[in-house]
Amino acid sequence: MQSALKNRLFVKEGPTKNISINVNYDKLEQIGEGTYGVVYKALDKQTGKFVALKKVRMETSAEGVPSTAMREISLLKEINHENVVKLHDVIMSDNKLFLVFEFMDQDLKKLLESRRKEFGSGLPEPIIKNYLYQILNALAYCHMHRIIHRDLKPQNLLVNNNGGIKLADFGLARAFSFPLRNYTHEVITLWYRAPEILLGAKIYTMAVDLWSLGCIFTEMMTLRPLFPGDSEIDQLFRIFRTLGTPTDSTWPGVHRYPDFKPLFPLWDARHIDDFLPELNEKNQQKVFYVSNSVYYNRIIVIIIIIIKNKNILTN
């Protein structure tokens, strides 16, 4: 497997390197851990700059290298955008796989947690708008290159101390083509998962990324997850209780999704002021004028208005 890996992985200047990780990098501290492995803050001895070393957990795949790591490397070597985290190198060291990324100061989740502890209120409006603009730029680039991220959440958005934010962790991302193919619905962390995926859709589009971003946007404003479900059905019902149970008039074809049930409870859409109290009356009217006709628009339209209207958060 390792020889096959070396033949398949290339990052800019050449194939995967098989050297000791300690030759070029000094590990300084562990800054993250998950099912994928462990992330360290490290110092690049050649450049004197900080990097993030992602040590891939090899035992998660019977073949050695997890498919998520292979997918992330494959996609990131093709991506070059200022709002997508850069993959600098791929190194095999003592039969361990390390991905070398540019270093960012923290992720959005940690930033929101510190904001909650220190101020108890959402991020300032200019920061939210700046972050949204950068994230939308990254998503537009990915979608134009036919890549769906499929795991957009605060933990996968990395920020620096200069106001920058970058899209990271492409382990669940997929390149798509037309006609669209079937995809797994076991993607996207539950709280940020689009309703069509919760309803069992096997074919979906980049709209699932925009749904996730809509959830993240409200979380930046309120410091609370918009739909903090504890199971798939609870997640779905939280969405329905807020946006209303979809029908064929508000969401044409919704009854054809595998997990849609005609006996779902019928909830009316809540007023947007209930969960986004920062919107003034004029902007509430704008939201409902655009969003009431199509169910899915009820979340993504909020993002559009924020970007276009400088005074959306003023009373």
Automatic annotation (TrEMBL):
GO terms for cellular component: cyclin-dependent protein kinase holoenzyme complex; cytoplasm; nucleus. Gene3D superfamilies: Phosphorylase Kinase, domain 1, Transferase(Phosphotransferase) domain 1. The keyword Magnesium does not apply. One of its GO terms (biological process) is regulation of gene expression. SMART domains: S_TKc. It is an enzyme of class 2 (transferase). SUPFAM superfamilies: Protein kinase-like (PK-like). Its EC number is 2.7.11.22. Keywords: ATP-binding, Kinase, Nucleotide-binding, Serine/threonine-protein kinase, Transferase. It comes from the Eukaryota. PANTHER family: CELL DIVISION PROTEIN KINASE, CYCLIN-DEPENDENT KINASE 2. This is cyclin-dependent kinase. It comes from Cinara cedri.
